Amino acid sequence: MDTVEVKLQTLPKQVAGVLARRIASGGVAGGQGPSEQQILQEFGVSRAVAREALKILASLDMIEIAQGRRVVLRPAEEWDYLSPLLIDWLPPEQMREILAEAHATRIIIEPAIAAIAAKHMTKEKLERLGTLLAAMSASEDNPDAYLKLDLDFHMEICRAAQNRILDRFMYSSRWWQMASRRISNQMPHALPSATEMHRAIYEALVARDEKRAEEAMRRHLKKTTAVGLPR
Amino acid sequence: MDTVEVKLQTLPKQVAGVLARRIASGGVAGGQGPSEQQILQEFGVSRAVAREALKILASLDMIEIAQGRRVVLRPAEEWDYLSPLLIDWLPPEQMREILAEAHATRIIIEPAIAAIAAKHMTKEKLERLGTLLAAMSASEDNPDAYLKLDLDFHMEICRAAQNRILDRFMYSSRWWQMASRRISNQMPHALPSATEMHRAIYEALVARDEKRAEEAMRRHLKKTTAVGLPR
DNA sequence: AACATCCACTTGTCTGATAAGCTTATAGGC
DNA sequence: GCCTATAAGCTTATCAGACAAGTGGATGTT
């Protein structure tokens, strides 16, 4: 143990991170993935750690593991871009692309969610949304708190749609937005405008007006363009 | 080793499957998850296997593992329902619900994909789609082959949208449809009708008509209702 | 050239330790 | 009695070395 011992994460996760970044950057030659032996030598960790690191990459569909065969790389089109791990490990350019694609996906999905939610909306949920809205209005000078409330607001609406697949999507959406926040210290003045748009969504839901909820959500997302994405 | 040695899957996966089914069925009392010790005793496996089984459950967001603390169960709303593993391990009723929700999600997403694809469609992609369509037409007496072509057809369209998040969604969709095929030996007569609808989508794409592609896809999915889902 | 056998390499599993982090209870001081 | 600090005992994390099992290629034979 001659190295500095920082323990921000578990050891296998750190190793997996290094490997993932290397693969994502195209720094791996053939279709051959990293073998246990290579990891042992390069990182000086035990086999258990090396194996767990590989399992992590496999769970992201970045590699394929099978007994007897060497680890092979899998096509990047099938990686699990919904995972917070992979988001962290992508090189900046790819990360920006993915965040833009994620936002485009939100524009497809969330208006539809809002429409369904308008149908299923209950008094209790509306109350909770109202509370969130008030809190947002009061947190416009605190971007971190505002983001959390924002995420909760959208998630609460999604829950009303009673669709676990959509729930999962919104759950992943949390990581993208936190990542996008991380790379670009965001629009400080846009928050009041955001609250207005959220209120418009809320009022459409109160009225149980599917079309209006859908349209309000679409307008909100189109305005809240993915931050810090040049080109 | 006094038990029969069947090796359909790796050992940790089998253990994880038993645990996951137990958790999903509500057969676990408090918020306490299974500990390594409990697994050792119950299944008679090594610690390495027990640990990997837990890691699998953690990768599905079913449990939370942290050093020193006991394993705790996570809320079912946040499980990774897009994973083929979890789909297999859900009890039948939940599985049916999820499949219905997955289909509802397809109806939201895929028409939008078709519209975007119509914009970006290239000659090469159209050719490949045409080939797939011909193959489908010729495989209407072979449901298994037909399903594979069907999946490829939808995936090919999705690829044209150039959105990795949507790609990932379609990739997961594969597992749902294979699962839904598994639980209900499906409509043998519906295949010719399906080919017609696929052709309608194809022709809209050829014409690069966004609205028509969107509508054709929607009609297709609304007709191809999730199979074997009563009520 | 075709086929069977064997061998080297890879991942899968087992055993038994030690390290590190958390919870709880216990003992001490005030 | 109450609060604090220490220690004990639980949990997961990591290490080490071994053997089992599966794959693919080399080898050798026919």
UniProtKB/TrEMBL annotation, chains A, B:
GO molecular function, one term: DNA-binding transcription factor activity
Protein name: GntR family transcriptional regulator
Keywords: DNA-binding, Transcription, Transcription regulation
Gene it is expressed from: pdhR
PROSITE patterns: HTH_GNTR
Span of domain HTH gntR-type: 9-76
Keyword Transcription: yes
Annotated InterPro entries: GntR_C (IPR011711), TF_FadR/GntR_C (IPR008920), Tscrpt_reg_HTH_GntR (IPR000524), WH-like_DNA-bd_sf (IPR036388), WH_DNA-bd_sf (IPR036390)
